[in-house]
Model the fold of this input.
Amino acid sequence: MPSEFELINRYFKRQTTTQQDVILGIGDDAALMAIPAGELLVATADTLVAGRHFPIDTPPHAIAYKALAVNLSDLAAMGATPRWFLLALTLEESDDTFLSSFAEGLFQLADAHQIALVGGDTTKGHLAMTITALGTVPLGQALCRQGAQVGDGIYVSGTVGDAGVGLATVLQQQNLGLTTAQQVFCRQRLDYPTPRLGLGQALRGLASACLDISDGLAQDLGHILKASQVGADIELSVLPLSSALQQLPPRQAWHYALTAGDDYELCFCLPDSHYATLMSQGWPITRIGTVSAHTGLRCWYQGQPYQMAYAGYQHF
Ligand code: ADP
Ligand code: MG
Done:
């Protein structure tokens, strides 16, 4: 079993970095990076704890991928260009099989977005990891939760609720009536979220408010409404559902789409004047409703009000 320093060198310190903006990477007391002129640093951190944020049987490859993906999703939601990240890793033991699979999953996503691991910390204990992701955004162009205006369209990327169904099939040990392929799809969506970085950057200067959906669409959209002091009307019949969710009874599908966590899709508000610009770029996005002047979130189904039973995930 490798010692702490062997472990860092073997799995996390790469001999070459192609990134010009990393002045000093892993190996010193701290890393040095150059922030492009005219840009702000965007910083975010997220922790994943075994058994709480991922099922214990999750492969190390997926654990690492997801740990980075959820952080990149936060950068995407700010409209940032991702650049660097740090990894604070707590391991039960320094196990080569675990670590090689973990590093592979981590760098698969990091390389896809050309971001560099510039430092971190390695400790012994119950399996958990915190990634700090750093990016930059041109001055004045960050996407915030505040700024939605009455009349703006409300949009989501991709499909919603898949990861929630994936988690339900694991926790409840039942297939919810889905085919094996649909279950595998939902489990993939749970384990390998897709951070919408390209879309986030495309929304700079267009979206009036934006966030990523980590705790369920209803609750997270609620954060935009609160910060922007507006309300929303959304139409359930247009919620973007995967073919797996379309297999479920509508009420059950909406429940997952609105309240289940771990989607890591973007939810944003857009003035109608920017609609054509964005749509011409071909992003996988769906208009699900409209920002309104009343307070809170109202759901509709073909013109009839629809009452939700449960809001979303909260740790405490
Ligand atoms: P210090 O004691 O000064 O905090 P460490 O001995 O913990 O430094 O780490 C040595 C170097 O290795 C540092 O550059 C640190 O950022 C890096 N490092 C430690 N653990 C990790 C990790 N899990 N992933 C990436 N870099 C790491
Ligand atoms: Mg030191």
